[in-house]
Task: structure prediction
Amino acid sequence: MLRLAGCCLLLAGLAGCASTTTQDTEEGDYFSDSSAQVLPNSPLDGPLLQSFLQPSPKVIRQALLEEHRRWVGTPYRLGGESEYGIDCSALVQAVFDESFDTHLPRTTQSQALQGHQIRREQLEAGDLVFFRPPGVYRHVGIYVGEGRFLHASSSQGVILSDMDNIYWRRHFWQARRPMEPTRLAQRAMLTRYSGS
Result:
C-alpha cells in the first residue's frame, strides 16, 4: 500500500512539475503571450504517463492470465491459502492482493458484498462471478474476459472455465464489480512497475 501511495504521489508531483509557468515582466503582466517560455518536451508527456492515467482494459486481463499461469494446477483445499492447496475465495483474495494491491475479504460470503452488483452481460475482466452449486458452499471466481473465469475448482484445482458451460450457467448467482476497471487497471500497472 505504501508503494501505491508513493507511486501516486510521484505521478501527482510529476504532473505539478510539468505545468508551464509564465515569466514576470517589468509591468507585472502575467498574461502576455510573448513572456511565456516554451518548455522542452519530456518523456513523461508521452505514452508512458498516458498509459498510467488511461490504461487499457487489456492490462487487467494480462494480469489475470499471469496469475493463472502462476496458480494453474494448484489443488483445491477447503481453507487452503497456498500453492499446496487453495480454495476459491482464498485464490480471489490472493490474486487481488498480488496483481492489484487491493485487499478483499477472505470468505465468499464477504466477497459477495464488495463493490456493486452488475448484470452478466456487463462483465469485464476483473469482475467477480458467484455461483450457487449444490451443497452449502457458494463459489467465486474472477472474470478474465472472452467468456472465461479464473477459479479454484473443487474437482480440478485452479483452472480457467467457460461461463457458458452448462454447469456454471445453471448455478450462476451474481456478478459484482469490486472496483471500476480504469482504477483496477491503474493498480495493475502500478503493482507491475513497482516490482510487486
About this structure: Residues 53-193 form a domain with the endopeptidase fold (from Nostoc punctiforme) fold (CATH 3.90.1720.10).
